[in-house]
Amino acid sequence: MKSSDSSLVPPAATPAAVTMTAGWRDYLALTKPRVISLLLFTTLTSMYIGAAGRHPVTLLLFVAITIGGYMIAGAANTINMIIDRDIDLRMARTAQRPIVTSTVSRRDAVIFTIGLTLISNYLLQHYGGTLCAVLADSGLLFYVVIYTLLLKRRTWHNIVIGGAAGCFPSLVGWAAAEHSLSPLAWTLFAIVFFWTPVHFWALALLLKEDYASANIPMLPVVKGERQTVIQIAIYMVLTIVISLLPAMLHYTGLTYLVSAVVLNVFLVYYTVGLVKVIERKQALWLFKYSMIYLALLFLMMAIDRCH
Q1: I need a labelling partner for 307 at 20 to 30 A (CA). Which of 103, 196, 202, 203 fits?
Q2: Which residues, 6+ apart, have CB-to-CB distance to 145 below 8 Å?
Q3: CATH code at 72?
């Protein structure tokens, strides 16, 4: 595949020799807002999918879960940055992160994490219920312990197993509305689980050199680009099958079925394009579309279930 585009991966930098004063933007950067946005969207749409129009999702609940959900995910991402400072230093894409540059000290980052976790737990438990808060904490622990500490530096299976952390937000949203979990809630979990390798390995193809320089055993680094594309295609098929289950099991109606079919057609199109020609442009298209795919899939299911 063609070499990385310098516009997407900035040049690496060394940590600042003197600690600078951190501003609110630095603390916001610790939470990885762009990463959280899609996870938060699945959380909120899952609330409506769970409620299914039987009872309204109040504005207060919506705001509380939005803030609480963002904070718990932000806490997980901040812990990830604290643990992975040495890795981030060696990767051009992450070399400007606040902890790497010492703009935010590790001590301050830990305090920030504790504050986020405590506030998020109050909001999620008080407004969403105990199950909602427990699931959110489980997602944080899974991301930090299973993915970051145990898998990320050891095996290319890191994103398959560890990626399950990104599935918890759908359960959190459902539990906030229903205070229990149904088979459809676990189907939402499964959709995100099988979608994650398609999404992340497309990104890993774009950042292969970066991961290699940091000695992170992502699939393209360990097994090569062709094997990565084969795995993407396998998980694409699994994603399509799981995405159609809600309609096949009559949890959703025609609106969702038609939407899912159309979205899956484009998913096949971009994946096949990458299978035919393994190059940066194709990987980038698949990566971008995968985000649109998941967001629209959850949105259309929420619309279908609520109308």
Answers
A1: 196
A2: none
A3: 1.10.357.140
